[in-house]
Amino acid sequence: MSIQGEGPAAGYLDHARVGPVSRPAAAALAGATSLATRSGPADLDRLFALSDAARASAARLLDAGPHEIALAPSTSNGLFTVAAALRGPGAVLVPRGEFPANLYPWLRFASRGGPAVRLLDPAGHRHITPDLLRRHLAPDVTALAVSAVDSLTGHLAPLADLKEALGPDRLLIVDAIQGLGAVPIEAGAADVLVSGGQKWLRAGWGAALLLIRDRCAQRLTPGLGGWAGVEEPFAHRHPAAPLPGAAAHLATNPDFPAAAALGAAIDDLLAGGGPAAVGTRIRATLADLLDRARRAGAEVLLDGIDPGERGGIGAFRLPGHDPAAVHAALGAAGVITTRRDEWIRLSPHADTPTAAADLFADALHALARGTAHHPVPSHSTLRPTTPPQEPTCPTA
User: Fold this and answer.
1) Among 110, 145, 203, 357, which has the minimal tally of Cβ within 10 Å of its Cβ?
2) Sign of the four-CA dihedral 162, 66, 198, 6
3) Of the candidates 225, 249, 271, which is a domain's last residue?
4) Are 151 and 171 found together in one domain?
5) Tell me, what DSSP letter sits at residue 174?
C-alpha cells in the first residue's frame, strides 16, 4: 500500500488517529474533483457512478451485496443513522469503555423513541466476552453496540462469538473504524457495520461505509432517510416508499470525490493481499515496538494476550515518568503517537519503516537514562490524567 507524496515522517505511529491518505486514494480524489469542475452530462454521470463503484468495492471487502451498503459522511453519522433507525421499546447494550462515538447516538435517541442504554461493566475484564454478554441478555435487550477493535487497548472483539451469544433475534452493531483495513475482522457476524476511511484505510474524510445486512433490514426504519433514500422522490407523493437495502437510510447524496477515494483505498487494500496480509505486517511491527517498550522498562496495556486477539493498536506507560512528558519527548524525537491519559498509544501501518522502531527505542532509552530533551508540553498534552466523568446511564 502506498502513501501520498513523500509519505509521513519515519516515526509516524498514529494511524489509529489519522492515516495519511494513500496515493491511489489521493489520485482518485483529485480525479473526481476534476470531474466536479466540469458541466457536461457525461462528466456528471461519471462522477455520480463513483459511489456505486465504491459500494461494489466495499461489498467485496465485507462479503456483502452492494445493495447492503450505503455511504454515510462519517462513522459518527452512520452510527446516528442506525440509532435513529432502531426504535424502542427495548435496550441496547454498550460496553462502558467504548469510544464515545459509539455511545452518544444511543444516548441521544434513548429519549426520542429509541431503546434504552445499558452500560456493560467488564468487571475483571478489560473487554466484553461472550460469557459476560450472556449474563446480561435480559428479555428486552435488542442489540449490542461494540467496536471491532478497542481504540485504546487494541483488543480485537470476538464478533462471531458475540453474535452467537446474542442469537438471531438481537442485532450486533459494529463500529469497525479501528479494525477495517488493519486486521481481519469477523465482519460476517455483524448485522450492522459502520466505518469511516480516514484511519487504517487511508482514504481521508467525507465517506464512511454503512452496512445493513438483508437479514435485519426490516427491523430498521429509515429514521434519518431523506429524499435520496426513497423511490420517485419527485412524484409529489410523500412520504414515498423507501429504496431497498441500505440506501433507504440515505439523507442525501454522498460526497462523490470522497466516495472515489474510499473505493480506491479499498481496491488498493485488496490488491495488496487484503486485511490478512496487511494485518500480518502491522502486527509484526507492533509486536516489535511493544517488545522494545518492555526492554525500556515500560508496562504494556493488555500484555500477554494472544497476538491474534490484538488489532493494530498497542499502548504502554513508563513507570516513574509523567505521561505528558513521555509523549512530548517522543514527539521531539520524531515519534508521533497519541496519549490517552497515562497511556501512550502506538499504531503503525504495514509500511512503517524499521527506522520508526529505532527512533522509538532510542527515545525511550534516553528517557530511562534521564537524558531526553523535555520540551514544554502543548496545551493538548496537558489534559488531566483522570478519566472523564462517565455519562449517567443504567448499568447492567
Assistant:
1) 110
2) positive
3) 271
4) yes
5) E
Please tell me the total count of domains within the chain.
2
Domain region containing 142 = 23-271
Could you please report the per-residue DSSP string of 267-335?
HHHHHTTHHHHHHHHHHHHHHHHHHHHHHTTPEETTTTS-GGGB-S-EEEE-TTS-HHHHHHHHHHTT-
- Between strands 208-212 and 91-95, the pairing is unpaired
Instruction: Name the band, by pLDDT with cuts 50, 70 and 90, for residue 174.
Output: very high
pLDDT at 9 over 90: no
pLDDT at 372: 58
Cβ 52 vs Cβ 167: under 8 Å: no
3 state DSSP class of 357:
helix
Helices in 114-218 by DSSP H: which ranges? 130-135, 159-166
Is residue 139 located within the same domain as residue 220? yes
Q: Which of 222, 253, 271 is the last residue of a domain?
A: 271
Specify if 314 maps to a domain. Answer: yes
CB of 8 closer than 8 Å to CB of 276: no
Q: How far is CA 158 from CA 24, 103, 171, 189, 230, in A?
A: 31, 20, 15, 9, 36
Contact between residue 246 and residue 194 where contact means Cβ atoms under 8 Å apart: no
Confidence band of 4 (pLDDT split at 50, 70, 90): very low
